TrEMBL record:
Organism per entry: Pandoraea horticolens
Superkingdom per UniProt: Bacteria
SUPFAM superfamilies registered for this protein in UniProt: Ribonuclease H-like
Molecular functions (GO terms): nucleic acid binding
Family matches, as Gene3D superfamilies: Ribonuclease H-like superfamily/Ribonuclease H
Taxon lineage: Bacteria, Pseudomonadati, Pseudomonadota, Betaproteobacteria, Burkholderiales
Domain Integrase catalytic residues, every copy: 1-137
Name assigned to this protein: Integrase
Amino acid sequence: MLTVVDVFTKEALAIEVGQRLRGEHVVSALNRIAARRGAPRHIFVDNGSEFSGRLLDMWAYHHKSKIDFSRPGKPTDNCHIETFNGSFRDECLNLHWFETLDEAKATIEAWRGDYNESRPHSALKELAPAEFARQLVCLPGPT
């Protein structure tokens, strides 16, 4: 699984499910996210080959995004995704046995929707991530 989380809103923007996910899967997920919300200014990743290849580097350059790699062996460098991945594992992956990739995708997408819409976060004043994000859109800009 490739998990993409907005560190500000805490929204799970994507969970890509597949076998042998590579750079093109990362770029595909980022393209879908950028089409909905714009490209991120920063992308925090580990040192996996799907992140360290030329394809993601070119995508980031084209979208003016900075890639920030965590130090090898230092998962605390990206504590937001590590915390999310722990919840994802405990609340979804450990509770289901998937017989097909399509079943896994459907179950995981349902969990992601529930996480975004129904899960209050103390860091967001007890709002669910999607509700917090919707409120940001409604705020007036600087005058």
